[in-house]
């Protein structure tokens, strides 16, 4: 949001941010695909089975929670664009935020309401990972977890960016939205926010980024060039989850936005 | 190291790993370049100036140390390919390592000796960041730190991978190395490990990856296409630091390797 630091985000700066975030998502997923599924990381019985702890969160619960605690200490969640998966009992930042300009851009009630973290978590673990990774276990749990954290954070940031999209759209044309917000008409809002042509452009672009970033040039005789991850996975991810979840966030944000 | 899980790394698997790690380095640096310098993150006076704590490590010291503690708990440093910047007082892993195959590949004495973490840290903060980032402060310290951690870890992993390179090369041709190791002749070892033609291929390849991953397609009228980071920075990084540091690691590893 380099061009928006002073006056808050604009339609153009939000669009640029969304496009840049595509790179982060595509690359994070390609990095995760280096490792096999490593199911133990997601199992709530793994830690209790090996008897090292009494309670049994999964490794991913434990790692993401502790990572978010650490990120909270350095002020990550002072930024309205960052949404934690485990928001309870986050520690306070060890210094006061330096950049106050963004803090009040979103409507706080609407921003708190528009949260699809649980949907993202479930989608990533149950639907995306089986498509992204090969079955198997190579024991590289720490690297797997580090990659999972980056993927989850990148997806969450991108999807919850719908709040900024909704806010800038509302400010640009409040009359278009106010009537439907007053009538709590989520279908009409959804329709206002849906541009199939634009969605198709986005899907084609992320697929293309998957092709560009994930191109595997063969180094050994007899092997063909290929992709680290099937590029279609990225358009599928956007079409099935990222775009629909972003629109859920936008509609929920608008429905809870004060009209004054 | 997918094809090396059973028998330990091979010349071919190490080469593949190194090439794959280039992607991680190039992409991490491009991500860091999204944010300006944000000097406060590296200042040992920042936290004490704002009066929130008594002692004054820099934010980056504090964040990398705590991140490594967390990574140690999930077993990151059971993997000989991962080298922490703050190795003292690391917590024990909360579970026993699942993948024992790699644990004994490197010679432990040589592996402990061949450590250039302090060089990498200093190079990253003092030389690379000024080339990579624009001057300025946008207050996004948490995101900046998260990116710095990824860059530092990717560089450290790549450079310390020299230990694996040295070990596989030694095993493939012990007679070529033993004489110089016995005579502690580091110059002769350095010469044995230097292939200028290969180094030039590597530099050209990372520059090309910088061009591919960092290509900025203009979205606004009147703007020209460009690169998120000057692609030459990547060949410079490899030529000035990554390749020379890797060779330091290799020579130091070999000099401390037992010949039995």
UniProtKB/TrEMBL annotation, chains A, B:
Top-level taxon of origin: Eukaryota
Swiss-Prot/TrEMBL keywords: Amino-acid biosynthesis, Aromatic amino acid biosynthesis, Cytoplasm, Isomerase
Top-level enzyme category: isomerase
Gene Ontology MF terms: chorismate mutase activity
Pathway terms, separated by semicolons: Metabolic intermediate biosynthesis; prephenate biosynthesis; prephenate from chorismate: step 1/1
Full protein name: chorismate mutase
Cross-referenced InterPro entries: Chorismate_II_sf, Chorismate_mutase_AroQ_euk, CM_AroQ_sf_eucaryotic, CM_II_prokaryot
Main subcellular localisation: cytoplasm
A GO cellular component entry from the record: cytoplasm
EC number(s) reported in the record: 5.4.99.5
A Pfam family: CM_2
PROSITE patterns: CHORISMATE_MUT_3
Reactions it catalyzes: chorismate = prephenate
Compartments where found: Cytoplasm
GO biological process, one term: amino acid biosynthetic process
Domain Chorismate mutase: 143-250
